[in-house]
């Protein structure tokens, strides 16, 4: 396990690193997840193996520290991730990033362009969302106030998301989980979609073949974003269909 201090208070971001060739490949998890659990199988798949690979956990998640005085905006997540990568001597990396992690990777590429050479986004959030009481992810969490979430709303979310997601979500600091979700729902200005369109690096967006919720595909493709549908999967493409994910990700990284 590797670590780097990424805040003025010395909070540590941690990652699992696999040796290999440069440029490095950075795997970034989604809300309430952890990169080693979500990406270990993918990183060693024959189509993706052989690169120096950092399976990194954002602050508030997984094996990284869980500060309660951190704001957990997408911009702050991106800046602390940049600090960890600079500490690790990473530049011009390829990013494979899921859901909220994809949003963070987009913001990182806009704010710290020297760190990013290519993006493979896995069903990433591109637009602001509406809070919804019936959901368990970012929209469901953001339906609460922070006080409501910390005083018991987290248990309702636990019951809605089920044991699979909760197995990693329970590792997240509750303040970090709530604030990350609330800021993800709020989005950025310009939006993540607008930032993605303006980037000049190669960009691939993976989404489940049966999912028709991604809007504006034509405008993404017109801006040079390759949109690839992966069969036989839901939102967690790399877990639901490892072979299909590896093929699609490898094509995006070629």
Short description:
This protein has 254 residues and is α/β, with parallel strands linked by helices. It is 42% helix and 20% strand.
Strand order of the largest sheet: 1-2-4-3-5-6-7-8
The share of residues in extended strands comes to 15-25%
Which fold name is given in CATH as the topology? Rossmann fold
Average predicted confidence as pLDDT: 97
Assign the CATH class. Alpha Beta
Number of strands: 8
CATH architecture: 3-Layer(aba) Sandwich
| Rg from Cα | 17 Å
SSE order in H/E notation?
A: EEEHEHEHEHHHHEHEHH
Cα shape: globular
Q: Helix segment count?
A: 10
Main sheet, how many strands, which sense, barrel? 8 strands, mixed
Question: How many domains make up the 3D coordinates?
Answer: 1
Distance between the termini: 28 Å
Question: Spans with pLDDT under 50 lasting ≥5 residues?
Answer: none
Query: Helix share of residues?
Result: 40-55%
Structural class: alpha/beta
CATH superfamily heading: Alpha/Beta hydrolase fold, catalytic domain
Pfam family, one: Abhydrolase_1
Protein name: Alpha/beta fold hydrolase
GO molecular function, one term: hydrolase activity
Keywords: Hydrolase
């Amino acid at each position: 396990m590797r670590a780097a201090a990424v805040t003025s208070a010395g909070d540590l971001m941690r990652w699992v690193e696999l040796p290999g060739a440069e440029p490095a490949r950075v795997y970034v998890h989604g809300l309430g997840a952890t990169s080693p659990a979500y990406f270990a199988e993918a990183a060693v798949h024959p189509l993706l193996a052989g690169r120096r690979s950092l399976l990194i956990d954002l602050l508030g998640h997984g094996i990284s520290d869980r500060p309660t005085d951190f704001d957990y905006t997408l911009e702050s997540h991106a800046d602390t991730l940049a600090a960890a990568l600079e500490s690790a001597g990473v530049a011009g990396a390829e990013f494979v990033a899921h859901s909220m992690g994809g949003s963070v990777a987009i913001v990182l590429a806009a704010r710290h362009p020297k760190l990013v050479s290519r993006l493979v986004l896995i069903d990433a959030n591109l637009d602001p969302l509406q809070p919804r009481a019936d959901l368990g992810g970012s929209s469901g969490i953001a339906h609460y106030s922070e006080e409501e979430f910390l005083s018991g709303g987290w248990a309702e979310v636990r019951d809605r998301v089920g044991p699979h997601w909760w197995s990693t979500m329970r590792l997240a600091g509750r303040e970090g989980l709530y604030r990350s979700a609330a800021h993800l729902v709020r989005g950025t200005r310009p939006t993540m979609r607008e930032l993605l369109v303006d980037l000049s690096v190669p960009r691939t967006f993976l989404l489940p073949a049966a999912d028709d919720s991604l809007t504006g595909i034509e405008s993404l493709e017109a801006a040079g974003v390759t949109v690839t549908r992966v069969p036989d999967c839901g939102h967690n493409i790399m877990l639901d269909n490892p072979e299909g994910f590896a093929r699609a990700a490898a094509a995006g990284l070629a």
